[in-house]
Amino acid sequence: MEKIKNQKHTKETLHYSISIMLERASYYGFRALVVLYMVGETLKMGDKEALSIYVWLTASLVFSQIIGALFGDLLIGNKKSIIIGGIIQAIGAFSLCIPSTKALYLGLFLVVLGNGLFKPNIISNFGKTYLNKTELLDSAFMIFYLAINLGSFLGILLVGYLGETYGYNIGFVISGVLMLISTIPIFLSEEKRLDKIEKNEFPINERVLNILIAFIVVGLFWGFYEVSSIRTFDLQLQLSEISTLDIPNHLWQSINSIFFLPISIIVIILWTYFYSSQFFKLMLGFIFGVISFGIVLLIPEVPTEQHTILYLISLLFLAISEIHIAPIIHSILTKYSNPKYLAILISLAFLPTKLISLVLGLFNDKLYDNPILGLKIGIVGMTIIGIGLIGYIIINNKNTYDNNFYEK
């Protein structure tokens, strides 16, 4: 670990973080209401039909982001894509105020289209602001990731509550307004000109290898996270019923956030002043993930109230694990890719995660019947990946040492 000198975050970091926070608040607030709206008194859809539409909505975002990235990188530019996407997504939210099935489908289509333009391009533009100070990339994306999580939490809390309390139209209007406001910081930000970015000096084979490893490793992390969460969620339900701790039922659903916020702030400060390699952080993420799942494995199938503390400790380590994984994928892609095509690469980063989740989803019936099995798969898988990353770091350090020796 080495001290970072003469580098600092700028107002652009604040602008982009506010923008993504508002966009996530808009999107997750909208998402919290849309199924309730479909099965409510206005449209009176069946549960099966509403959930089918919801699944289509979330699945189609992966492909819309690829299309949006292509537009941003190759046709209209990243900044224009963000602004146009934000406006389209807002119109989509407003469309749902019209009480008809046609307006529903139009609104969902516009939300998907707008999100596809907005999300990969804002991540790309944010990353480009740090290409002349790559040691700060990890802390920058941690700030960005914190903003995403705060926006998601506030959106569900604020938009979801107001929509359910005062009517779905109020919720959709607030969602649309938040989306429009999210484009204002982008108007105020200058787009990073590619001719002012320092050229990527890494050999092409090293760049390709690091990007491929990041794709696969992060996809596997979320896959193992998903199969192990079956047991974690089961424990949450049981402990929320028997725990004597003064934790309201609705807070059990977002208890991760209690740990996520303070740990994120600590990590942001640490990574802003001290640098360690991105793959070292990934390795730590998997180690903390194994510790978290190992603690859960110690809790018996039918827990008692005394096991609540163990469960909360496991969530603490899981939050530390996620923090060392999720922001780093975008940091690695930004550092090693060609900035001209960064949005495209970022949009493709979602595919391994979805593909691995789809494959593991084929075994959901067995995992739901035996949630401990999913937990064991997560522990073994994360241990193997963690050991692999240790080996990759050792080989990289040896190659760096040999190169420096021969240069001397």
From TrEMBL:
Originating organism: Tenacibaculum tangerinum
Keywords: Cell membrane, Membrane, Transmembrane, Transmembrane helix, Transport
Coiled coil: none
Top-rank taxon, per record: Bacteria
Protein name listed in UniProt: MFS transporter
Membrane association type: Multi-pass membrane protein
Cellular localization per UniProt: Cell membrane; Membrane
SUPFAM superfamilies tied to this protein: MFS general substrate transporter
PROSITE patterns: PTR2_2
Residue intervals passing through the bilayer: 51-75, 82-98, 143-162, 168-188, 208-225, 255-275, 282-302, 308-329, 341-363, 375-395
InterPro entries per UniProt: MFS_trans_sf (IPR036259), MFS_Transporters (IPR050171), POT_fam (IPR000109), PTR2_symporter_CS (IPR018456)
